[in-house]
Inverse folding.
């Protein structure tokens, strides 16, 4: 099964700056989800965007989806130290099939 | 509070031993999943279950077994046939097994083979 490819693999920014992570894929999808994982912990669902949606907001998070380019981006505005984590895009391909990418490791420096 | 509980958090095993990882949820979710995560990697699906007494293999089921005798419980057994079992194991559940279901994760179990 084909997974999303996150870019960059690692990102380090200063607190207060915005962080942008991208996810590209090759096959058609039903929708796409973003999850966060703190080191050594379980994953937490952040946001779901459906294939017929272009943009979605949740607090400081903004997700976009461009099905023509087969890509999605996650923007975290006004980053905080607590945002330090790995972020995964998850493709939804048919029922049951959630495919995880390798993630972007985000580090927020104080 | 509702959630998913995995145990143990850390587990050490000698080669050739089977071990069972526990996963319990009180969210009344129908679907449950087991994933494996290796360092710096994403998650790979081992097994999933959409309903009691039914489960399907994921992408890397070889060397693993599961059961789903109760809605709340989905234990994973790592058998001696799994050639490289050292990994972080994550259990998840979703309300239904349908498309786009949000996954709720446990805190994981870290298995180390000595």
């Amino acid at each position: 099964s084909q997974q999303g490819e996150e870019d960059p693999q690692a990102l380090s920014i200063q607190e207060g700056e915005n962080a942008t992570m991208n996810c590209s894929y090759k096959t058609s999808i039903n929708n796409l989800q973003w999850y966060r994982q703190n080191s050594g912990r379980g994953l937490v669902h952040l946001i779901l965007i459906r294939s017929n949606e272009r943009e979605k907001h949740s607090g400081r998070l903004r997700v976009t989806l461009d099905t023509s380019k087969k890509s999605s981006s996650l923007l975290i505005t006004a980053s905080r130290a607590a945002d330090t984590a790995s972020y995964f895009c998850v493709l939804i391909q048919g029922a049951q099939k959630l495919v995880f990418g390798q993630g972007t490791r985000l580090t927020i420096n104080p | 509070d509702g959630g998913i509980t995995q145990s143990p958090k850390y587990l050490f095993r000698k080669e050739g031993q089977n071990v069972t990882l526990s996963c319990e949820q009180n969210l009344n979710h129908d679907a449950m999943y087991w994933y494996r995560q290796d360092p710096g990697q994403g998650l790979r699906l081992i097994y999933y279950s959409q309903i009691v007494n039914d489960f399907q293999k994921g992408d890397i089921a070889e060397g693993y077994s599961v059961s789903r005798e109760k809605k709340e419980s989905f234990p994973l057994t790592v058998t001696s046939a799994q050639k490289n079992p050292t990994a972080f194991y994550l259990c998840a559940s979703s309300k239904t097994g349908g498309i786009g279901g949000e996954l709720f994760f446990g805190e994981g179990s870290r298995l180390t083979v000595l």
Notes: The mean pLDDT of chain A is 91. Chain A has no helices and eleven strands. The longest strand of chain A covers residues 43-50. Chain A touches chain B at residues 1, 3, 30-31, 33, 35, 40-45, 48, 50, 88, 92, 94-96, 98, 100-103 (CB under 8 Å).
